[in-house]
Sequence to fold (430 residues):
Amino acid sequence: MHPVVRIFGIAAVFAVTSIAWMIFGGVMRVRSGDQSSELRGEVSELWGSPQQQKAPTFTFVRQIQETQATTEIVDGAVREVRREVTRTEERPVAPASTAIEAGLELDQRLRGLMWYSLYDVDFTGRWTYTHADENPGTLRIGFEFPSADGLYDGFRFVVDGEDHASSLRPEAGAVTYDVPVEPGEQVTLEIAYRSRGMSEWRYTPAVGVANLEDFSLTMETDFADIDFPVRSLSPSSRARAGDGWRLSWTFERIVTGHDIGMVMPVPIQPGELAAALSFSAPVSLLFFFLILFVLGTMRGIDIHPINYLFLGGAFFAFHLLFGYSVDHVNVVLAFVICSVVSVLLVTTYLRLVVSPRFAFLEAGAAQMVYLVGFSLAHFWDGFTGLTVTVLSVLTLFLLMQLTGRVRWSEALASRKAANAPTPPPGQPAA
Fold:
């Protein structure tokens, strides 16, 4: 076969296989998106939604007696009439101190092609209020649960040492309680519950920008991979606690409108990983084909485009098998199985086409680097591009060193001569 025809044949095989990968990657992305939209609602109903716990509101309420003067017409004469009326004054007040404790326990669940990061939260909050106003009145405490349809086990609502949780009747996911207060009196409030959520947990110290006095929040996790939500405060200190962390936010006085929270770690999403592997697969196949072509040209090995077609199919088999097995077995186990299957397909085939040594040592090593190695790079979140780039540069260096002394015109011409038909005896060569 003419070298140019051979190159075009290999390019056609590469193009067809790449198109198949693009289609398969799109299929996996659609499958993941459909399952995510369908299953997320089901998981949320079973376990809970992302929780955002707002701080309780404190409102000072007092009745003010006022005299109002009005004019009335009595017997044709205009007279001024004075009446005593009661007006209700309400104004928000701030707690003197806040102490929050939150324990987060991670529980990751796999549904279809999607992992969901669920968690249990053990919440305890303590607030103190000092009545600095010179007038007596009522302190109205309002507390809103993170979700109106959530589950809150062991709920306690303790005011000045007395638990009123059993007498409260939530309305629209919130409860209120009134406490009479005198000038200089201090009111203590403790709220606690155990609940479940998904993806992230937040505590909102106040609505909008607020001045926080004597504020502390301690969070303990049973997982080490921690991250914080957007527009949230970083902890003042952190320390390892078992398998997780003990994080503290402590402020003597701070003005802020940011939340405090935690984003639950998410395992590698099988569906997204399968799609990403498919979209990047042409790069690995390109380098694998280049290695085979160079080695074949340098050593005079006859690898036909049809052989390349079967090799491309063996590479594609890795991604096809991975995409439809990863939602049934562990992602690492699925990766190992697919790698072994694909490598065996390539090496056992090239053992017959070329030789056992070439198949297991050279082609097998190349496949381990460009299929398995390239695919493993997707497990290192944030380093995938860098890993692929480094492998690409090293491959370019290797190929340049191997072919630096090759005279391609002579090498391709000799291959052409070697592939030319042998003339019958007595007939001159063409």
